[in-house]
Amino acid sequence: MRPLHSAGAKDARSGGFFIRVHHRFKExxxxxxxxxxxxxFRRVQVFHDGHADxxxxxxxxxxxxxxxxAVSQIDAAVDAQxxxxxxxxxxxxxxxxxxxELIGKYMTPLATFARSKLVGVPDFGALTPSANDLxxxxxxxxxxxxxxxxxxxxxxxxxxxxxxxxxxFGNKAQAIQTSLDARENHRTARKNATTQIQVAxxxxxxxxxxxxxxxxxxxxxxxxxxxxxxxxxxVTQSTGVRHxxxxxxxxxxxxVTAMPAVQAVPATPAAAxxxxxxxx
Length: 280
Fold this sequence. Notes:
Layout: H1 9-13, H2 16-50, H3 52-55, H4 62-117, H5 124-127, H6 136-150, H7 154-157, H8 165-219, H9 223-233
Helix pairs in contact: 2-4, 2-8, 2-9, 4-6, 4-8, 6-8, 8-9
């Protein structure tokens, strides 16, 4: 019998792999943008703290308090997001191991036995599930149907397998379901943390926008502080392109030396045709 498979080839052929890669790149790009925004928030805080003699009145206003609160919220949410991400990955690895054991140790042997000894029994189809795309929820549906169909046949099945085979089968399937539920809980918590980050980032941007006008008023005319402030609030992006600080070289027009005009040499008149002189 062809063994049952939990994942892999069919998923790759159906395009699932490329969809996951696309979502992964999108997620990384969004996270990178958030990181750069938070870095700019911290630079703004450092600028305020380092130039309290000039912008000290700004440090106690509502915009600065909003910025500080946003940074604190982002830090807490990022920690929670990282924890949930690690927990989700650990749960996925655990579930995959359980799936391999369920399929290889219980479902495949039982399906092989059913095709040999149980042809014609009720729910025979449930005892011999398709080998296509058996993973996560679909695997659980097949496992539950298989266990339900095998229960009335326990007496026939028992002599051919170890003691407690069907009970162990059910326990393994339940362990996978528990792992699936835990994964969804971790994903939900991670999504909530991501939403919190997005909300806090918006608060931070609004705060910096408000502070921008106040700071520009206080440092107007101080070229050094104006340049430092513009650098602090700027959000850099990792585009992979390095922007040179050297100003672009202005193209120098090529100097064309005028050549003296060459006087036209009068054309030599064409020689008159020689007439043949006849002798009388």
